[in-house]
Amino acid sequence: MEHFQNSDKAAIALVASNKTDAFVLERAKKFGVPTYTFTRKEMDAGKLLEKLQAEKIDWVILAGFLLKIPAELIRAFPERMINIHPALLPNYGGKGMYGHHVHEAVKAAGDTQTGITIHLVNEHYDEGKVIFQAATPLTPEDTPESIAQKVHTLEHRYFAEVIDSLI
After folding, report:
1. Burial bucket for residue 103 (CB in 10 Å: 0-12, 13-18, 19+)
2. 85 classed as catalytic
3. Which residues form the Formyl transferase N-terminal domain (predicted)?
4. Average pLDDT rounded to a whole number, residues 17-46
5. Closest-CA residue to 107 (of 143, 79, 73, 77)
6. Burial degree of 165 (CB within 10 A; 0-12, 13-18, 19+)
7. Domains of the chain
């Protein structure tokens, strides 16, 4: 959020979450950004789309959002909904592949690198057009926890910058 605080290209107009205790809601309030919480049922019934349209949202940026997004919502933001995934897609993508599940799979496979993928969202988990990828080397000593730290560093380094370049 800091990155966009004084941006002349984009502003964060709303932070929405299906988790009422999500830390991002606290951060948003700290930065004076309006928040909105919703249930899966409300999202599936079109309430989230109604809210985004009412707020005149241009882009939807997903981070840590695990629910399957309704096709109607995706179609409302063609080429304007992006997600960040904690692996180098197409590896370790799809339903159930998030957070520690990804890092444990990377470790179990003995991969020598991992990274992040920023991609457009389509109607299939983690299959949208890749916009950007960044990799980090791994060693045999890495654990799922240290892998998570390396990925988190990449997310912080690149996500806002890539968003900025798209808008």
Report:
1. buried
2. yes
3. 5-163
4. 95
5. 143
6. exposed
7. 1-57 (no CATH), 82-167 (3.40.50.170)
Cβ burial, residue 26 (10 Å; 0-12/13-18/19+):
exposed
Residue 15 φ/ψ, nearest 5 degrees: -115, 120
Q: What is the pLDDT of residue 9?
A: 80
Contacts of residue 104, Cβ cutoff 8 Å, sequence gap at least 6 = 144
Distance separating alpha carbons of residues 159 and 116, to the nearest angstrom: 9
Q: In Å, what is the CA distance from 159 to each residue of 25, 37, 121, 165? A: 18, 23, 15, 10
CB distance 132 to 118 below 8 Å:
yes
β-strand 15-17 against 130-137: which pairing, if any? Answer: unpaired
Among candidate residues 3, 85, 101, 103, the one labeled active-site is 85
pLDDT in tens, 36-68: 999 999 999 999 999 999 999 999 999 988 889
Q: Which of 65, 41, 73, 54 is nearest to 14 (CA)?
A: 54
